[in-house]
Structures are given as C-alpha cells and as structure tokens.
Design a protein that fits this description.
Helix content is 35%, strand content 17%. The protein is built from 14 helices and 15 strands. An eight-stranded parallel beta sheet has the order 14-13-12-11-5-2-1-15. It has a three-stranded antiparallel beta sheet with strand order 7-6-10. The protein has a two-stranded antiparallel sheet with strand order 3-4.
Length: 459
C-alpha cells in the first residue's frame, strides 16, 4: 500500500510540474532554462582636454620631455583624451605635410608680453604627442583650424601665414561686404585670423588634402575640424565673385544687384523680417560647409578606417547660422524655432556625418546651471536636443576666457562644472590645458572627475 501511495504522489508531482511549464502565460515554457543574463557594466564617459598650439607653445614647441611629463599628469588627473592643435590660426602646421608650410614661429602671450616664439626643434610635434599620450594611457586627437590661412598680429608684430607669403592665395581669401563696399580680408587692417573662402574649389581640395595627411598617422585616434566655418565678420562674409557664381548655380537664378539684393553693405544681423533670398543664402552657406564636412569625413575614413572624425563648434546654435554652419542633426526641426531656417536649411545639418562632436559650452563662471543657452547646463541639454542622438558629443567650458574666468581662482567650481557637463552630455570637454596649468586647477578637476567615476562604479 505504501508503495502504491508513493507512486501516486510522484505521478501527481510530475503532472503538477508539467502543468506549470505549460502555463499559457509563460512565453518560454517550452524552452530550456536559460542562465541569468549578465547585467550591463556601466561605462565611464570620456574626458577631453584641448591643447591650443599658441597658448602652450613655449612648453611643447621645442620640448618632448615636457610633452611626456604633462601627458602623465593629464592622465593622472582623470582625463582620458587630449585634443592637440596642430594647425593654429597662422595656417602653418605642426605635422608632416606636403601641402602646407611647417610652422616656424607663432605669436603668443608670455607673462605680460606679446611676441614671437620660434620653433627650433625638428621632432614631429604631432607624432610626439601620439607616442607620449599613448604611453600615458591617453587617446590622442589632432585638431586643425580649417578655414584659416594667415594671421595679422596686434601691437605691430606683423603678418604670418601662406596667404601673406603667396600672392596666388589672395583669391582664396574671403571678401567681406563691409560698409565701405566689398573688401578682400587681406586689405583689412583689423588684427586677427585671415579666413579662406569655403566655396572656393581649390580651398576645399586643400582642406581635404590636409585631412588625408592627418589620417595617414595610423596611430592617431581622431581628427577634429576647428573653425570649419565662415570668417569672424559673420553675415558680411563671403561675397567674392567665386561665391556669387556658386550661389547663383545653387539657387538657379542670377542675383542682382550684388550683394545688396541679399544684404546691404555692413549688415551684421538679420532684421525682423527675413526674405526668401536671404533664407536661400543662409542655406547655401550651411550646405557649403555640410558638403565639405561630408567629403572630409569620407576622405579621413578612406585613408584610415579606424580613425574618428568630428568637429568643434560653438554651442550657441541660435546665432551660429551667422557662421554658415548647421551642426545639428538633419532630423532636428529647426524651422519651427527660428525665422531664418527653412526645410532646406534643416537638411543641411551635418551631425550624421560625424563620429563625434565637441560643443563649446562657453558660459560664464556664474552660469553653470540653467535651461537656456549661455548656461553650461542649458548648452548641453539643448545640444542633445539638436543633435538628436545622431552623434555622441562632449561639452564643457572655456575656463580661461569666458566671463568670470580670466582672473583665475575658480577651482571650487570645477567639481560642479564636471558633474554638470558630463551629466548632461556624452563626455566632458575642457578648454584649455594652459589655463589648468596657469591657475593650478589640477586637483580641483581631479576631485570632480573622481566623484563622477565613483558614481559610475557604484552603478
């Protein structure tokens, strides 16, 4: 009797298990048991620091030892990447090039004086940063000032760059629609960078060649285009005959009188009403930069499929159209927010051609938090909206030039800046290394980065 009872109990248990497995609400009832899926491991976001060529030239231009020492300290502070400026505003270069002149001297401030710094060393500046950066555990990216070809220095220091030394390059330069009429930028006495015309085919070919040369550094991690835009005169640039022909081809009709049919001489901002021709003009400029960025990205990846390609832009999108750039995703519906935008301007967004992008969230020291432009947090949040996940972005402040920063003494703000920017972006971006060193922000940045990494490790 006991034996029969035991058999019956086993049979009932088996039926119970089978019924449980055949529960119609269990979608996986007929599949073998699966091991628990591994939980995703939290990954820390990258932390980039920019190394401007002129501002850091006295330290690195002739000293590989200082490059080595500071790469170690950058890594110890918690940064993961460096962005090395290898084509400053003179347009001469600090890498191997057959199309651009090598940099021999650069204008810079040292202490309280302004003057030339000479390059006497013969080591490859970019290669030295690649090797020393990698040895310290950093990724290394090369930045180039894209649409520049020379610099007119203040205080009577003089002129430097290929547009001054090569008369044939005059036609490459931008022509501004100034109050006194159309003027080639080489004939303007105001000091600053001299920009090349993005619509000029030879200029475009020159830029692509520079990108190809940088991509040929097989151990280089990335290329960042800086100043890939129209010149600092904004809406006054560029109105050369070359651009006139390109624009008339773009819009499919002649434009007369030139350029006042678009803008009156000296126009620096849009009025309350924007004409259809002005919208076409703004779209043409954005499309010109878009197409150049697309070609440059393609060339970089052809030469080096592993390299990352991106741009630096100012995060102030609402007025960045004056520079001829739409850095947003083409899916961002800017035309519903801005009077100057059209469907074609929206389509000229170039974010989807990049591997990464850097947004200058250059708000003042007392504007870390907020939801609008000209706050660091607002710049980051609006940047995320405008990029629409088309490309990862790093964002952060200029800790030496923006309002409240030039006098230094802002170390106590660094942890909050790190937390705010990296918390609202895909990475942290700090401009510039020279200010970290000048104001000794090493420990305060490390405190902020360590606090961030602790939150990641605790996830």
């Amino acid at each position: 009797m006991r034996k029969l009872t035991t058999i019956l109990l086993l049979a009932l248990a088996a039926l119970s298990c089978q019924a449980e497995k055949q529960n119609p609400w269990d979608e996986d009832w007929d599949k073998p048991d699966q091991p628990d899926k591994p939980q995703p491991v939290a990954t820390a976001k990258p932390r980039y620091v920019w190394i401007d060529a002129a501002a850091n030239f006295d330290d690195y231009g002739n000293s590989r030892d200082r490059i080595r020492e500071d790469c170690k300290r950058i890594a110890q502070t918690g940064f993961t990447d460096i962005i090395v400026d290898v084509r400053p505003t003179t347009g001469d270069v600090l890498f191997k090039s057959s199309v651009a002149p090598a940099l021999k001297r650069i204008d810079r401030w040292k202490g309280s004086s302004y003057g030339w710094a000479e390059r006497t060393a013969d080591f490859d500046y970019l290669q030295a940063f690649i090797e020393e950066g990698h040895a310290a555990g950093l990724k290394v990216h090369a930045a180039m000032n894209t649409m520049v070809g020379g610099y007119l220095c203040p205080y009577g220091l003089g002129k430097e760059g290929m547009v001054y030394s090569d008369e044939a390059k005059r036609e490459w330069c931008t022509v501004q629609n100034r109050p006194e009429g159309l003027v080639n930028c080489l004939d303007i006495d105001e000091y600053g960078a001299r920009f090349l015309n993005p619509a000029h085919k030879d200029v475009q070919a020159f830029v692509i060649s520079l990108v190809a040369e940088l991509a040929a550094y097989k151990e280089l991690d990335g290329i960042v285009l800086d100043r890939c835009r129209y010149d600092d005169s904004g809406l006054m640039s560029d109105f050369s005959e070359t651009t006139r022909k390109a624009f008339e081809q773009f819009c499919g009709h002649s434009v007369s009188p030139w350029p006042s049919a678009i803008f009156a001489p000296g126009t620096e901002s849009l009025g309350s009403a924007v004409s259809s021709l002005q919208r076409e003009w703004l779209t043409f400029r954005a499309r010109t930069i878009h197409d150049l960025v697309e070609k440059a990205a393609k060339k970089a990846h052809e030469v080096n499929p592993k390299i990352r390609f991106g741009t630096y832009v100012g995060a102030w999108y609402s007025s960045y159209y004056t520079s001829g750039v739409n850095w947003a995703s083409p899916s961002y519906n800017c035309k519903t927010e801005y009077l100057w935008a059209s469907a074609d301007y929206q389509a000229a967004g170039y974010a989807d051609h990049l591997d990464y992008i850097f947004l200058g969230a250059y708000a003042g020291a007392d504007h870390i938090h907020g939801t609008t432009e000209w706050t660091m947090e607002g710049f980051c949040k609006l940047g995320a909206k405008r990029l629409a996940s088309a490309v990862p972005f790093a964002a952060g402040p200029d800790i030496g030039n923006s309002s409240g920063f030039p006098e230094g003494g802002k170390g106590s703000l660094m942890p909050d800046i790190v937390k705010t920017c990296i918390g609202n972006a895909d990475g942290l971006f700090i401009f510039d290394l020279c200010h970290i060193k000048m104001y000794d922000y090493w420990s305060s940045l490390k405190t902020g980065i360590d606090a961030y990494l602790k939150t990641v490790n605790n996830q």
